[in-house]
Amino acid sequence: IYLFSILMKLFLGHILKFFAIALAILLLCESMYFYSGHYQEKVHGWEVYAAIRKSKQNSNVKRLLLGDSVAMQIYPCDKEYNDMVSLACNQAITMAGYYFLLDNYIESNNNTLPENVILFINPLTLGSNMDQFAYHYFLKPFNKSEYQEKFTNYLINRISLIKYYKTATMPFFRTSNYSPEYTLPSDSYGLVSPISRDYINKIQYLCKKNGISLQLLFTPSKESNRIKIESALEDAIEQEEGIRELLEKGKNSLCFLPDNQFKDNVHFEDKYIPKDYIKL
Question: Which residues, given as ranges, of the chain have pLDDT below 50?
Answer without folding.
Answer: 23, 26-27, 33
